[in-house]
Design goal:
2 copies of one chain form a homodimer.
Chain A: E1 4-9, H1 15-28, E2 33-37, H2 42-46, H3 55-64, E3 66-69, H4 83-90, E4 95-101, E5 115-121, E6 131-133, E7 138-146, H5 147-163, E8 168-173, H6 181-193, E9 200-205, H7 206-215, E10 222-225, H8 227-241, E11 248-252, E12 257-261, H9 278-290, H10 294-309, E13 312-313, E14 325-326, H11 329-338
Parallel strand pairs in A: 1-2, 1-3, 3-12, 5-10, 8-9, 8-10, 13-14
Antiparallel strand pairs in A: 4-5, 4-11, 6-7, 11-12
Helix pairs in contact in A: 1-9, 1-11, 5-6, 7-8, 9-10, 10-11
Bound molecules: 3-isopropylmalic acid (2 copies).
One 3-isopropylmalic acid (IPM) sits between chains A (82, 84-85, 231) and B (176-177, 207).
């Protein structure tokens, strides 16, 4: 098999540790990767680049088109731009795919039957970043919803559901209040939905939809929603499935794709061999599927599941009575590698 | 005791049934109320009034300054305005107080120790209703955050916490993305917070904050947040505490106040003596406290709790093994009245 070129960034905080662990596992599983490393995050921000990404990083990304990214820390204070948002926009990564499933009885959860995928629109909404100070007393931010952007994400959600053998696509919006912007979402959801008679369609106002998701997530399958709702509710879904620490995500565009953990860089845990590499590893599994190394992806996933099942857990998911052995980042990775 | 004039609207769907049940309970408990009835909702909308509120209703509200409101149905299609939003704005009801606590072991919940109050800003944010079509392909909605509005709600939250003997106030915003609007929130939260050294202060980005709330709500006490996050997360909190069907809310302004259930008009359940009047009754209890009839409020609350404890439950919270008797709206109200 030819090696696939990918771009990798070790990030900040716990980033380097979980990236090393992840890459070790991928290598042991025989992933065919040609890795280019780039620098992003704190160090780059502090050098004066407000996006947190060195210019030559973009060359690498445009060449490889595949980005495995560890979490970064954005320095406090004004002037800095979110690297996540910049990357998503610069590379046109319009779909953020965020699976959240429970691993009952191996990881504690109150929702043993949950298996939800949130498809989050990734470029528009309040994340368009159009904010200004009207007067010293009044601040504004623009929520932007476009027809092409909405059509793209909704079609992506239906195609995803069909290709993954899923049964239902649900749409969450607040169209009883935002009749134009969120109303457009509903309209396009209904229009595009007609092309998918094989899939069940469902629509909830986001308040009560979120309430049902948090209470009985097993009612849901694939859920598509605008950027901000998706940001909030994908964290909710991941956390109630077990932990935000074990969820990965794929940011998909027409040309490029970025894969990451959904959690942050947790600076206070950094450098202590404490962090759970599972979120990033789950991102890497999605990456392997994306670049056509599905068999390797399956090998990694099975070894990871076996490790969880054997009760070998990092501190964040360790629970007396369920877990067997509390391990650090390195030991967890070694345990996964032993099980490949 | 002098009777307090209040304005009452029976609303749509299950509204009339739960309002009748609620008023019967209040009367039996000796609440001193002088009730003025107004018409709102479907019938008024259909008569061509886009706000769903007949003009003379405003006179009543300006006179009594206290509004007990059943849920209404807004007809589908364009042109209609949300009556809730109109009323909140017209009467300056800037604070929406939404308690969510569990009644374990009498009402089923996965979160037996939860006792959270969400203080939702009620006039600004994307609810300002400034939306427009830029082109046929691009729609926009304005999120508006003002310094006076933010100061008011944050001060309200701290005052509320102090007066209710609560310990901690948490702020939820997305200030890593919306650095101006949500950033202003954080700034003012920190400023105003300094005046309350007796209270613990906490700040979460709304995504991970929401995740923690949905997973371990017992970590929270009072949470203050902008309108839209508050809309979504108060439904989440109520639902995971037991049901959105048992939560009431107070909309508080400097002059007027409105009390309601947090759920909607559930047209499909209407006229069948099925609905749970508890949400509206909880709103009414908050109203009695507000108008200085705290002893009556306590009588009602204790009788209601005793009814729940005795396992006399409407269909929505009925659970084999926990509930004893499945009753309708009227029978539930009678059971509460017997226990006063
Ligand atoms: C770090 C932040 C900008 C980002 C977002 O809001 O999208 C994160 O919360 C996420 O969900 O990936
Ligand atoms: C009916 C709707 C306009 C309202 C809102 O969004 O505020 C409701 O969801 C609520 O929370 O009271």
């Amino acid at each position: 098999m030819n090696k696939t070129p990918i771009t990798v960034a070790y990030g900040d905080g716990i980033g380097p540790e979980i990236m090393q662990a992840t890459l070790n596992i991928l290598e042991a599983a025989g992933a065919q990767l040609d890795i280019e490393e780039i620098k992003i995050g704190e160090e780059v921000y502090k050098s004066g680049i407000t996006t947190g990404m060195e210019p030559k990083a973009w060359d690498s990304l445009r060449r490889t088109k595949v980005f495995l990214k560890a979490p970064i820390t954005t320095p406090q204070g004004g002037g800095y731009k979110s690297l996540n948002v910049t990357t998503r926009k610069a590379l046109g990564l319009y779909a953020n795919v965020r699976p959240a499933r429970s691993y009952h009885p191996f990881v504690e959860t109150k929702h043993p039957k949950m298996d939800v995928v949130i498809i989050r629109e990734n470029e528009e909404d309040l994340y368009a970043g159009i904010e200004h100070r009207q007067t010293s007393e009044v601040y504004q931010c623009l929520k932007l919803i476009s027809r092409p952007g909405t059509e793209k994400i909704i079609r992506y959600a239906f195609e995803y559901a069909r290709s993954q053998g899923r049964k239902k696509v649900t749409c969450f919006v607040k169209d009883n209040i935002m009749k134009l912007t969120d109303g457009l979402y509903t309209k396009i959801f209904n229009e595009v939905g007609e092309e998918y008679p094989d899939l069940e369609k469902e629509h909830w106002i986001v308040d009560i939809g979120a309430a049902k998701l948090a209470d009985t997530p097993e009612l849901f399958d694939v859920i598509v929603m605008p950027n901000l709702y998706g940001d909030i509710l994908s964290d909710v879904a991941a956390q109630i499935s077990g932990s935000v620490g074990i969820a990965g995500s794929a940011n998909i565009g027409d040309q490029c794709a970025m894969f990451e953990a959904i959690h942050g860089s947790a600076p206070r845990r950094a450098g202590q061999n404490l962090a759970n590499p599972s979120g990033l590893l789950q991102g890497a599994v999605l990456m392997l599927q994306h670049i056509g190394q599905a068999e390797i992806a399956e090998k990694v996933q099975n070894a990871w599941l076996k490790t969880l099942e054997d009760g070998i857990h990092t501190y964040d998911i360790f629970k007396e009575g369920i877990s067997k052995e509390k391990v650090g980042t390195k030991e967890f990775a070694e345990a996964v590698i032993e099980r490949i």
